[in-house]
Amino acid sequence: MNVDTSKVREITRVVTAHRQREGAGFMVRRPLPSQGFDAADPFLLLDEMGPVNYGPGEAVGAPDHPHRGFETVTYMIEGEFEHEDSAGHRGTLRPGDVQWMTAGAGIVHSEMPSARIREAGGRVHGFQIWVNLPARDKLMRPRYQELAAASIPSATSENGLAQVRVIAGEVLGAVAAIDTRTPIVFQDWTLKPGADVTVRLSAEQRGYVYVFASAVLLGDDATEVEEGQLAALGDGGAVRLRGHAEAIAPARLLLLAGVPLNEPVARYGPFVMNTEEELMQAVYDFRAGKFGEITRSAVIG
User: Fold this and answer.
1) How far apart are the first and last CA of the chain?
2) Which stretches does DSSP call E strand in 169-273?
3) pTM score > 0.70 for this model?
4) What are the helix and strand counts (H, E) for the chain?
5) Which residues pair with 124 in a beta bridge?
6) 102 vs 14, 197, 266, CA distance in Å?
7) Residue 281 lies in a domain
8) How many beta carbons lie within 10 A of that of residue 103, not counting itself?
9) Contacts of 71 (CB under 8 A, 6+ apart)
10) Domain count, the chain
11) pLDDT at position 5, please?
């Protein structure tokens, strides 16, 4: 397919996120998958967690649960999340931090608001994205990459009106520090009123923009995309992002892109494989204890 690499991508579809209860009862805003928009190869899921203000004792998360066959990316905007898994990893995600977990052959994972927020309350806002793995990597050894906010590259447009944090890929001279098994673009943009920036995006990649604060104008057509909406982008080699000149607050958005795997997808809850037989094997292996379990020391006091 020959694509004009100078062509600015225009919107082909806009999906409004729906609200759904997950884990132990926390609410997410989910544009993918949604009715009539089941997948965006290689992306399987996009959840916006919050923003929510918890009172004391109200905060809930996602206690022990398995994964196989894909990667999860957790990105915190506000608040704190504690995580641990059956491979012995433990840590706390704070504002701006990223956890990139390649579940591969299988892992049991737990993600909960920090003990401080569970006890005293507080504000939580973040994202989790599921990225599919190609068939050759679905049973690879699980691995973790965790970056503190200060280690995530960032860049600013020449006029200072557009700022970006580069979680995956590269833009404006900033190159991500994370090694992606399935190569993708994952950028967090802040557009001040009047911002107008055009950035390159490989013609091979499918592109998506999710707006989570205010509204943005996309493409040369300046089509408006509002908070809570996901826009699928058409062919081209560039993406144009603009903030309303009259906006009273900056717009925030995620720019996501990836080369489609073009492989069959069989999914059942936290398992994503290529065939129904592989899904059955994943369930069997989990029930047989082959994913391990999270070990916790008893607290004595």
Assistant:
1) 66
2) 170-171, 174-175, 184-191, 196-200, 206-213, 215-218, 223-226, 229-233, 238-243, 251-258, 266-268, 271-273
3) yes
4) 2, 26
5) 52
6) 29, 32, 18
7) no
8) 26
9) 100, 101, 102, 103, 130, 131, 132, 133, 181, 182
10) 1
11) 73
What's the domain range around 35?
Answer: 11-258
Give the angle subtended at the CA of 262 by the CAs of 176 and 209, to the nearest 5°.
45
Point out the residues of the chain with pLDDT beneath 70.
Answer: 1-3, 296-301
* Domain-embedded: residue 68: yes
**Beta-carbon contacts of residue 299 (< 8 Å; ≥ 6 apart):** none
**What is residue 264's DSSP assignment?**
-
Which residue in the block uniquely carries the two structure tokens 């701006």?
96
Confidence at residue 56, expressed as pLDDT on a 0 to 100 scale: 96
The reply to whether 266 falls in a domain is: no
> In this structure, how many other beta carbons lie within 10 angstroms of the beta carbon of residue 80?
21
Domain containing residue 203: CATH number? 2.60.120.10
pLDDT at residue number 299: 39
Q: What's the rounded Cα separation, in Å, for the pair 29 and 51?
A: 9
| Predicted pLDDT of residue 3 | 62
Residue 269 lies in a domain: no
Q: How far is CA 53 from CA 56, 98, 128, in A?
A: 10, 21, 18
The pLDDT of residue 186:
98
